[in-house]
Design goal:
This protein is mostly helical. The protein has 2 domains: about 80 residues, Orthogonal Bundle (Multidrug-efflux Transporter Regulator, Chain: A, Domain 2), CATH 1.10.1660; about 40 residues, no CATH class. Helices cover about 60% and strands about 5% of the residues. Strands 1-3-2 form a 3-stranded antiparallel beta sheet. Strand 2 and strand 3 form a beta hairpin.
Length: about 140
């Protein structure tokens, strides 16, 4: 894996990043990086003052972890296994047809939630508290 793999082209051209810089680049808080560092058994270098110093490949790994956890919906254990296996995420491995079906299902769930919310407001406005569990 090259150091630039998984990094956007506009990524700063530096060798090391302090934790605050790394957190901003990854899009999470610094404490999240420290947590992920322990959960994913990453060994970071330290400066002479003891500050964590992350390399470009560390940032790329954090970005992959964020994608797995936040976008693909993996658990910590699932993301750890996916990174260890080096395999493609199992979410859509069988092709685009499954992707489309999942999106359709999610769209239907979203529409149903909106309808339930509207019904709840209608009943609440009509004073039907027992239906909503408010009374």
């Amino acid at each position: 894996m090259s150091d630039d793999e998984g990094l956007p082209p506009e990524f700063p051209d530096k060798l090391f990043f302090r934790i605050g810089e790394a957190a901003n680049l990854v899009g999470v808080e610094a404490h999240v990086l420290r947590y992920w560092e322990s959960e994913f058994k990453m060994r970071t270098q330290r400066s002479s003052t003891g500050q964590r110093m992350y390399r470009r490949k560390d940032i790329a790994r954090f970005m992959e972890i964020r994608r797995l956890l936040h976008e693909d919906g993996f658990t910590i254990a699932g993301a750890r296994k996916a990174l260890e296996d080096g395999a493609a995420p199992p979410t859509c491995a069988s092709g685009g047809a499954d992707d489309a079906r999942v999106r359709e299902a999610l769209d239907r769930v979203k529409a149903l939630r909106t309808q339930v919310g509207s019904l709840a407001e209608t009943y609440r406005a009509a004073g039907v508290a027992s239906f909503l569990g408010d009374g």
